[in-house]
Amino acid sequence: MTYEVTVAGTDISFTCEPGEAVLDAAERAGYALPYSCRKGVCSTCEAGVRTGQVQVRGQGGRTGPAEEVLLCQARPLTDLEIAPKRIDRRGPPDRKTVTAKVQRIAWPAEDVAVLQLRLPTGVRARFRAGQYLKVFMADGDSRNYSMANPPHQNDSVQLHIRHVPGGRFSESVLAAIQKGDAVRVELPYGEFSLNEDSDKPAVLIATGTGFAPIKSIVEDQLKRGSERSIHLYWGARKRADLYLAELAEKWAARAPWFSFTPVLSEAEDGWSGRTGWVHASVLEDRPDLSGYEVYACGSPMMTSAARADFVSRGGLDPDSFHCDAFVPSGDLEPASPQ
């Protein structure tokens, strides 16, 4: 049998198969719900369950009315009525699985590789700035990486990959990869995209390689000739971790609507810039966030802290906070913030 899922306050409904996550069922039916990691860690897909019962990995059985239910992990046991943060009609996802070839590899930092993949001749990748793809390994296991190139550069994809000690991809695959090697990818995934229906000033926050989707978003805005106010705060431990800071500085010099603030949590001698937690710098500059949209990308610790503090202390509308939490594969605990 299948279960009927209805969305409170709307005329939207869709079916969900036994054992199928509510998030997957909504996507299959052509509806977009907020999500990021799809592992039950980042909380982006949290929603209310008004009526019905679900089984949730990590939360057990939940019976409505219930709040903070992870839709990426919730499997229905009955018909449901849910209350997500938002839901949009997008149509079923148009994804492609293709075999790309490594065009070049660069190491702008000791532990960060920029991998450029060329798609097959005649193939174009359709995606929104900020989305990610899956990279498959030989045994079928996969890893998620944001696309750092803007959508108009759609005959190739650029990935920013941090070397993780013990990481299957970064140590067993990335360490041995060479120009011309084949890499199978599936794209696009994700809902971390700039809301084009809003003209509110946007604050972008990144930690580490969370800069990758931010790069895609900013370069897309440059291509579009946008004049929407955007301020990027990029947090890292050391100066070297801001591996493409010069690029962000070039954007700031080129576009009057764009500003860039780097923030270091373990600044070396001679650093005259901002220090501390990156989201704290945002609140120092903008104690009132009620008129802003925020896009945060990086570690779950940073995105969680930013959301909590921006809403409670900065007056940010919770619906104006968007995040893409980078969760290491198999990791069910928040990672380090930088």
Question: Could you walk me through the main structural features you see in this protein, from its secondary elements to its overall organization?
Answer:
The chain has 338 residues and is an alpha/beta fold. The chain has helices at 22-28, 168-173, 211-224, 245-254, 278-285, 300-312; strands at residues 3-7, 13-16, 31-32, 46-51, 53-56, 60-63, 66-70, 74-76, 80-84, 88-89, 96-109, 112-118, 132-136, 142-146, 156-162, 182-189, 202-207, 230-236, 258-264, 274-275, 293-298, 321-325. The strands form five sheets. Strands 14-13-16-11-12-15 form a six-stranded antiparallel β-sheet. It has a six-stranded parallel β-sheet with strand order 20-19-18-17-21-22, sandwiched between helices. A five-stranded mixed β-sheet has the order 2-1-9-4-7, covered by helices on one side. A hairpin with a 5-residue loop joins β1 (3-7) and β2. The model is unreliable at 330-338 (pLDDT under 50).
Gross morphology? globular
Biggest beta sheet summary: 6 strands, antiparallel
Q: Uncertain spans, ≥5 residues at pLDDT below 50?
A: 330-338
Q: How many β-strand stretches?
A: 22
Number of helices: 6
* Radius of gyration, taken over Cα atoms and rounded to an integer in Å: 20 Å
Helix/strand order:
EEHEEEEEEEEEEEEEHEEHEHEEHEHE
First-to-last CA distance: 46 Å
How helical, in percent, are the residues? 10-25%
Cross-sheet strand order for the largest sheet: 14-13-16-11-12-15
Structural class based on helices, strands and sheet pairing: alpha/beta
Proportion of β residues? 35-45%
> How confident is the prediction overall: mean pLDDT?
92
